[in-house]
Design a protein that fits this description.
With 334 residues, the protein is an alpha/beta fold. It has a single domain, classed as NADP-dependent oxidoreductase domain (TIM Barrel). Strands 3-4-5-8-9-10-11-12 form an 8-stranded parallel beta sheet. Helix 1 runs parallel beside helix 11. It is globular and about 50 Å long.
C-alpha cells in the first residue's frame, strides 16, 4: 500500500484511510461487528489510517474502534494512525448543533475520546467545526498544549478556509485540513489544495464518492428518504437526485471500460491529483471496501485524467452540496 504523510512532520499512513462515520448509524443501521469486520480487513489490506469523531453516533464510532483495538493486545497502539474530531455539540444527523472550541470543552472531550478509543495518545486531533467566537490562534495554542502534554501527536481543522489555515499555521504547524473533495465537489481547488500543499499540510478528503453518486450504486430516492441528513441535502432531493444520477451514468460507463468499479476510479482520480491528498471513504461493506483499496493501486495517465474530467467537468452537479442549515459551521471562501 502506498504511503503518504500526515503533514510534513507527521506519520506516514496508507494513501487512503477509513472514514468511520459509517461505524455509526449516520448512513443506515450498523453494528459493532460490521465495524470490526472492516477494521480486520483493513489490516490485511495495509490500511493504517482511521478517521472518526466524538459525535459520530454520540461516541459509538470511537467505541467500536476502541473495542477492536482492545482485542489486539500489545499491538493496539501501533496498528492504526487514528484521527478524531471535536467541536460539535448536538446531533449532526438532525442538524441541531452548536460549536464549542473553548479550552475546557476541548480538554474534557479529548479525555473522553482517549477513554473510548482506549489509546494513550491520539495521532491527529481535529477541530470538527470552528467556533467563530474563539479566535483560531487561541484554539491553535490550546491544541499545541495538548501536543506538549503528550495527549495528541498532531492536530488539524475540518472545513476551514485557506485564510484560516494561514492564521493557525502562523502559531503552529497544522498537520491536516479535512474537506469534502471529489469529482462532485471541486471547491478545494480554489485555494485550499494550493495552500495545504504550500504549508506542508495534508488535505484529507472526506466523501470522496460524492455520498454514493460516484459509485456503481447511487442511493435511490426511496433510500434517501430514510436518511435524516441526506434527505435534506439539495443534491439528493428531487428533481436534483434524478438529474445527478443520470449525469454520472457516463462516468460509470467509463469505469466499466477501464475494468474497475466507479468507486475505485473516483478515489484514484483524487489520489492522482496530488501527493498530499488522502481520501477517507467509508463503508459497512467488505466488497465496497475492497473497491476503495483498489484505488491506491490504480495509476491513471494524463489522458485518462482528462477523459474523466470531460465526462464529469467542474460544476456538473445540480444542487448545492449543503442545505442552508447544513452550511452552518463550514467556512465558505469562494
Amino acid at each position: 500500500m502506498e504511503k503518504r504523510k500526515l503533514g510534513k512532520y507527521g506519520a506516514e499512513v496508507s494513501a487512503i484511510g477509513i472514514g468511520a462515520m459509517s461505524f455509526s448509524n449516520f448512513y443506515g443501521p450498523t453494528n459493532e461487528q460490521e465495524s470490526h469486520t472492516i477494521l480486520a480487513e483493513a489490516l490485511d489490506q495495509g490500511i493504517s489510517h482511521i478517521d472518526t469523531a466524538n459525535v459520530y453516533g454520540a461516541g459509538a464510532s470511537e467505541a467500536a474502534i476502541g473495542s477492536f483495538l482492545a482485542k489486539q493486545g500489545s499491538k493496539r497502539n501501533t496498528l492504526f494512525s487514528i484521527a478524531t474530531k471535536v467541536g460539535i455539540k448536538g446531533n449532526i444527523q438532525t442538524g441541531k448543533t452548536e460549536f464549542d472550541n473553548s479550552p475546557d470543552y476541548l480538554r474534557k472531550e479529548l479525555d473522553g475520546s482517549l477513554k473510548r478509543l482506549g489509546v494513550e495518545s491520539i495521532d491527529l486531533y481535529y477541530i470538527h467545526r470552528r467556533d467563530q467566537n474563539t479566535p483560531i490562534e487561541e484554539v491553535t495554542e490550546t491544541l499545541a498544549s495538548f501536543v506538549k502534554a503528550g495527549k495528541i501527536r498532531s492536530f488539524g481543522f475540518s472545513e476551514i478556509a485557506p485564510s484560516s489555515l494561514r492564521r493557525a499555521a502562523s502559531i503552529h504547524h497544522v498537520a491536516a485540513v479535512q474537506s469534502e473533495y471529489s469529482l462532485s465537489v471541486r471547491s478545494p481547488e480554489l485555494g485550499l489544495v494550493q495552500t495545504t500543499e504550500e504549508l506542508g499540510t495534508a488535505l484529507v478528503a472526506f466523501s470522496p464518492l460524492g455520498r454514493s453518486l460516484l459509485t456503481d450504486r447511487p442511493h435511490s430516492s426511496d433510500k434517501v428518504k430514510k436518511m435524516d441528513w441526506l434527505s435534506k441535502n439539495p443534491r439528493f432531493t428531487e428533481p436534483n437526485l434524478k438529474f445527478n444520477i443520470e449525469a454520472t451514468g457516463k462516468f460509470r460507463d467509463l469505469a466499466a471500460q477501464y475494468g474497475v468499479a466507479a468507486a475505485t476510479l473516483s478515489i484514484a482520480w483524487l489520489l492522482n491529483r496530488n501527493k498530499h491528498i488522502i481520501p477517507i471513504p467509508g463503508t459497512r461493506s467488505v466488497k465496497h471496501f475492497l473497491e476503495h483499496c483498489a484505488a491506491a493501486r490504480l495509476r491513471l495517465s494524463k489522458e485518462q485524467m482528462s477523459e474523466i474530467e470531460k465526462v464529469l467537468p467542474i460544476g456538473w452537479a445540480q444542487g448545492d452540496r449543503y442545505s442552508d442549515k447544513q452550511w452552518v459551521g463550514p467556512e465558505k471562501y469562494c
